[in-house]
Amino acid sequence: xxSNIERKYxxxxxxxxxxxxxxxxxxxxxxxxxxxxDKYEKGIRRCEMLELLLKTNKKxxxxxxxxxxxxxxxxxxxxxxxxxxxxxxxxxxxxxEIEKVYKEEYITxxx
Length: 111
Prior knowledge:
0% strand
């Protein structure tokens, strides 16, 4: 799953442990996914996790359009070009965004 995201958004991955927005390193993404998967291992399959990440990416992109967030034009340009908005957020914020989308997409649909 990490490989899929890494290939899809390759220009957003950094080898450095200290990366700048809108980039991420592989280990940080693996940490996010691992913690989230451990939390919901009975409620979500790995294939759904990839779908959840892509939906979260789309939701972040939609929320940024027309917002007053302080995002540099270079960052926004890079995100628009690649379609990757997921890493425009910090580590903890990405987890919160995934949680929101999970609740909207999976919890409410099950009820």
